[in-house]
Amino acid sequence: MKNTILAIIAAAVLIVLALVLTSSGGSNIKQNTDTPAEVASVNNVSIVDGKQIIEIQAKGGYTPRKSIAKAGIPTILRMNTKGTFDCSSSIRIPSMNLFKSLPQSGVTDIDLGTQSAGTLNGSCGMGMYPFEIDFQ
Asked: How many domains in the chain?
C-alpha cells in the first residue's frame, strides 16, 4: 500500500512537471521549420576592393550553413575559427579538389577564384558538417 501511494505521488509530480515545461517553458523555444532558402545568409558576404569575401564560422559545424553570393566576381572564402578542435577544423570542397586544415583559432582565407552561377558544396574533413554557397 505504501509503495502504491509513493508511485502515485511520483507519477503526479512527473505529470505536473511535464505540463509546466511544455506550457510555459516551451513557449520560448522556436522550432526550426524554415526551408533551406529561408535560412540562407547574405549578411556574411561583402565586397572589398573588387573581391567578394564570404565569412563562415567553423566550430561544431559551419555558420551560416548556406551563403548566397554573386557569380562572376573574384571570391575569397574566409574561415574563422575560435577554439575549434572538432572535424570542422578542416574543410574540403570536392569539386575544386580542395582540402585545407584550419588553425584552432584564427582566420584562413581560401581563394575560390571567379565562380559561375550554381551551388558550391563543402564540408568538414569527415563529411559530417556540410555547407554550401549559392552563387547567383
From this structure: 1
Identify whether 114 is part of a domain. yes
**Single-letter amino acid code for the residue at 105:** S
pTM of the model: 0.70
> Is there a domain that residue 37 lies in?
no
Residue 11 lies in a domain: no
Distance CA(112)–CA(122), nearest Å, equals: 12
* C-alpha separations of 5 from 15, 17, 126 in Å: 15, 18, 53
pLDDT tens digits in sequence order for the chain, 136 residues long: 877 877 787 667 667 555 555 554 443 333 344 444 434 667 899 999 999 999 999 999 999 999 999 999 999 999 999 999 999 999 999 999 999 999 999 999 999 999 999 999 999 999 999 999 999 9
What whole-number distance in Å separates Cα of residue 107 and Cα of residue 26? 38
- Look up the domain containing 125 and give its range: 45-135
Cell of 64: 551560416
Please, which residues bridge with residue 65 across strands?
none
